[in-house]
Amino acid sequence: MDEELLAVWLRLTSVIDNQRLAAANAGGKALPFNEAMVCGLLARAKEENGFLTASSLCRHTRILKSQMNVILRSLEDKGAIERRQSENDRRQMELRLLPEGERLYQESHQRVKKLVGRLIGEMGEGQVQILLPLLRQAADIFDAMQQEVS
User: Fold this and answer.
1) 3-state secondary structure (DSSP) of residue 87
2) Mapped to the 3 state alphabet, what secondary structure does 105-138 carry?
3) In 3-state terms, what secondary structure has residue 71?
4) d(CA 29, CA 34)
5) Taken in order 125, 110, 58, 5, is the CA torsion positive or negative?
6) What are phi and psi of 17, to 5 degrees?
7) What is the rounded average pLDDT of the residues 113-131?
């Protein structure tokens, strides 16, 4: 059973992170998965306090700092984010989502919602209602395991 679960899990995660699938639904232009995830977090932060730091993004996403720096550079090059030195702590850089980043994120989010809508349509709402608590439970278990090793 463990091998079968692992095989399905790997297949599902590779499909979800598949840039070709997202790009096919975006006319060939799509934010990479990690960039979209970072923009989503920055969009939510914008509603609350306006910014996040690279360290907090690493904690939320579990992405390594070196990898996060590549993502942030790419988003800066696209005009999606800006970095500013914190007024409270000069050692910290605050990251803010710019209007272009909001636009890119919303386009990406709508494409993903369209894919999820198709999944719901093909599986049926009843099956998805069964699947959701199981996925939440699996995510909670993995979160707990992550806390154990942190």
Assistant:
1) coil
2) HHHHHHHHHHHHHHHHHHHCHHHHHHHHHHHHHH
3) helix
4) 15
5) positive
6) -90, 10
7) 93
Q: What is the pLDDT of residues 83-118, one digit of tens each?
A: 988 787 778 889 999 999 999 999 888 888 888 899
Q: Mind spelling out the 3-state secondary structure of 12-67?
A: HHHHHCCHHHHHHCCCCCCCCHHHHHHHHHHHHHHHHCCCEEHHHHHHHHCCCHHH
22 pLDDT above the threshold of 90: no
CA atoms within 13 Å, Cβ hemisphere of 90:
0
Give the model confidence (pLDDT) of 28-67 as tens digits: 466 888 899 999 999 999 888 778 999 999 998 989 999 9
Q: Structural domain tally of the chain? A: 1
Q: What type of residue sits at position 26?
A: A
CATH number assigned to the domain comprising residue 11:
1.10.10.10
Helix, coil or strand: residue 2: helix
Tell me how far apart the alpha carbons of residues 42 and 58 are, in angstroms, rounded to a whole number.
Answer: 12
Q: Which domain holds residue 100?
A: 2-149
